[in-house]
Amino acid sequence: MKLLEPMFDGYDRLTSLFSRRQHTPSASKQHWLLRLVSALIVILIVLQMVFGFLWNSEPDVYDPVSYANDLSKQNNEHLVTGYITTATAIRIGETLLDKSGGYLSNDVMPPGVFMDNIPNWEFGALVQLRDIARALRNDISRSQSQSVEDPDLIIAEPQLNFDSFSWMLPATESEYRTGIKALTRYLHRLADDNQQDAQFYARADNLRDWLGSVEKRLGSLSQRLSASVGQERINTDLAGDAAAVQSTPTQNMVEVKTPWFDIDDVFYESRGSAWALLHLLKAVEIDFQDILSKKNALISVRQIIRELEATQATVWSPMILNDGGFGFFANHSLVMANYISRANAAVIDLKALLSQG
Questions:
Q1: Which helix (H) or strand (E) holds 254?
Q2: In this structure, is residue 130 part of a structural domain?
Q3: 59-101, pLDDT tens digit by residue?
Q4: Range of the domain at 202
Q5: pLDDT at residue 211 tops 80
Q6: How far is CA 13 from CA 5, 10, 269, in A?
């Protein structure tokens, strides 16, 4: 047996060596796959960060009058009353869908699902688009309360009020494009001399009714922005009407404060709303120029535009700061509230001018 021990030892060494040669390629392959997967994950994360950075940019301000002029020449159409306002509404809708990254509010995949600044900006602009579409359908396109509604605006207004968060069956983008196409058909009919069923009535009462919606939107945004620091306010819900009642009693003093996680959301919603309203008012200044001149109200419109332009200044801080009113750091919400409030006050003055004979 001792004579056979070297033979057995040699066999064991040979078996061990063969076994190592059999398993080494497999272990190396597993290690290579692990490194490949790790590299792919890192690349994916980097790409998500790059796309997130590129998509997290607000659209630039443009000139609605120049855009409408170019569009009318491109389509060989006349620049009739209402053309600029309608073209601006269409451009706002197209910007929501076609800007960098597309429409992000209904994204369910990264990086869009993790972004909140631009989706809130989109909602602010969308609300203004919905308001002008409603004004076009209910007031501006109709000569009186008993007149027939425009068939394209009947389609456009509800389509633009579709759920802004639906990602499929149907997708929000497809519903909004249907509304934008209906607005585009209304625009072409408006500029067609052979069709008289599409009208845009630039009257003081129509403008005043739309401004009523604008006033409420700006007032709400101003309150929410100002509540970023939190304050105790006197309840003025029933002020000015001694006979007024409300469904649920409330205290005389009300604590108002925007939740900390919602502060940047309200800020970017205000930016989006001001961006859309800025362009609409520049268009209204031209389409309603005659009535505004007659009411001596052109200066009021230009003052609103100036205040809204200030809301679009570059935010140099990497995040929206929320220090106290006279704190050491800035409070971006209060700065925005200042411009929004001043614009809202000018809107109220403009409505008063339009109400005068």
A1: strand 253-256
A2: yes
A3: 999 999 999 999 999 999 989 999 999 999 999 999 999 998 8
A4: 56-234+253-355
A5: yes
A6: 12, 5, 74
Buried b (16+ CB within 10 A) or exposed e, 48-84: eeebbeebbebbeeeebbebbeebbeeeebebbbbbb
The 10s digit of each residue's pLDDT in 5-19 is 444 344 455 445 444
Looking at the domain assignment, is residue 105 inside a domain?
yes
Bridge partner residues of 256 (DSSP)? 231
> Can you give the pTM of this predicted structure?
0.86
Is the separation of the CB atoms in 313 and 195 below 8 Å? no
Residue 19 has which token pair?
A: 């076994």
**Is position 176 within any domain?**
yes
Alpha carbon distances (Å) from 308 to 206, 270, 274: 22, 10, 6
Question: Looking at this protein, which amino acid is placed at residue 348?
Answer: I
**Does residue 116 belong to any structural domain of this protein?**
yes
Per the structure, the count of domains in the chain is: 1
Which amino acid is it at 143? S
Residues 6+ apart with CB under 8 A from 237: 246, 250
